[in-house]
Amino acid sequence: MPTTLANINAGNIDEVSAKDPAWLAEDRKKAIAKYLSLPNEVSPLYSKYSDANRIKPQGVHLNFAQGGSRHAISGDLVKRLEELEKETGILQVGAEISKIVIKESVAKQGVIVTGIRDAISKHADIVKAHMEANPLDHGEDRFMALEAAAFQSGVFVYVPRNVVLEEPIRIITSLADDGTSLVSRNVFVAEQGAKATVVQELYAPGTGNASETQQGYFELIETSVKQNAHLEAVTLQAMGTDTVCVSNRKAFVERDAKMSWYVGLFGTMLSRFKTDSIMKGQGATAEDVEIVFGVSNQSFDIMSNLIHNGQFSRGKVQVKSVMKDTSKSLFKGMIKIGKDGKGTESYLAGHAILLDKGAKSDSIPGLEILTNEVRATHSASVAQIDENQIFYLTTRGLSREGAKREIVSGFLEPLSRKMGPTIRAWINYLIENKWQGNPLMLRADEAMEQILEVEKSRYRETQDIFEKHYKYR
Predict the structure, then answer these.
(1) Could you tell me which residue ranges the SUF system FeS cluster assembly SufBD N-terminal domain spans (predicted)?
(2) pLDDT tens digits along 145-193
(3) Cα–Cα distances in Å, from 21 out to 28, 413, 462?
(4) What does DSSP assign to residue 372?
(5) Do the beta carbons of residue 371 and residue 335 sit within 8 Å?
(6) How far apart are alpha carbons 272 and 218 in whole angstroms?
(7) Whose CA is closest to 251, among 229, 225, 214, 288?
(8) Which phi-psi region, left, alpha or beta, contains residue 215 (left: φ > 0; alpha: ψ -120 to 50)?
(9) pLDDT of amino acid 456
(10) Measuring CA to CA, which residue among 273, 268, 263 is closest to residue 234?
(11) Contact present, 307 and 339 (Cβ < 8 Å)
(12) What one-character DSSP code corresponds to residue 54?
């Protein structure tokens, strides 16, 4: 009998953990027990809003066989691979690491980019030290427990002390072409004083038989940002609309360090992203910036928590959703300031714009504060697109659809501006392709080059304005 989410059990986990060290195999056992005992939505506050029931456990097939067959690489991925050859990064197709490229100048600095299984085998001391210093509570989320228990593959990135990488590390992940789903565990470690950017692209070929098989990508990302380090993690999710994507993200940020999450969500039938930024040390900073664009009957479930355990820490979450047709978005956020969080400043915001009457969005922000002398605020809004703005733009020569696109661009601009010109160009490229109904995959084509040149030009102009303004001399 093939293994599905409907019949997964502890025996399957024993199979997948056969080559693991004892400490990891034991952790997997604890995690699968939690997965089997928990509901899809642990919190009763959110359960009535959740679309997690769109996941069909009986249709999500997992392949736990060791050393399975090699998967074909699509033509589009071949082109992405050619571009990867010039950079530092890794290509993962299904549970197989298909390609690893590390620039010589990067490798000389001791940077490690490899598969998680290889890391557990060859760099067990680093992986174990991270997991022991930042233990997970498997009872927090059912799917996080699944990911910790059943991960078949994943990526390990290690940036040594005081190493500053100017170019990003690229992770390109695609589901396999045989309809099987994937469970991944990614670990990123930035040692003291290090600085790096990791860019993750998520794709799926589509099953073509969604009534029987539902392809899913389930991932756990853990980042360890040591003292005075700065790590940026960028995710561009462009999977097919017959798939599901569930991602649990944990950032552990130490003294005077900074973690930046930048996310663009465009594909899948259901995306469920949960981000916990845990500021462990004094002066730690975390930010989470997410852009969501939904069409048809897509559903996006976004949760972002800022957890302040250290003094004088800073946190900011900004999520903006654009919902078209009958798509849905749900934003859940919480600021938690512990007893030792004196001097904390934290901000949480979720805003949505609805382009059609059938679209829907809900926001549920919250605060939990256990100390004094802090600043913590949150805001949320959901609104239909302004007909007066559309009328004004159409009188200036734009079509109604063109007017909507300009309004959406202005709505998202304040967030995309935070991501730098290259990431902003990629996001604009994916938005443009989605609006036109084109395939969602980054390509180094003429359209991308034009968008990239425009964004770089705008970035230079903005710099010039600030340099010339009297307040900034």
Answers:
(1) 101-171
(2) 999 999 989 999 999 999 999 999 999 999 988 888 999 999 999 999 9
(3) 11, 47, 52
(4) S
(5) no
(6) 10
(7) 225
(8) beta
(9) 66
(10) 263
(11) no
(12) G
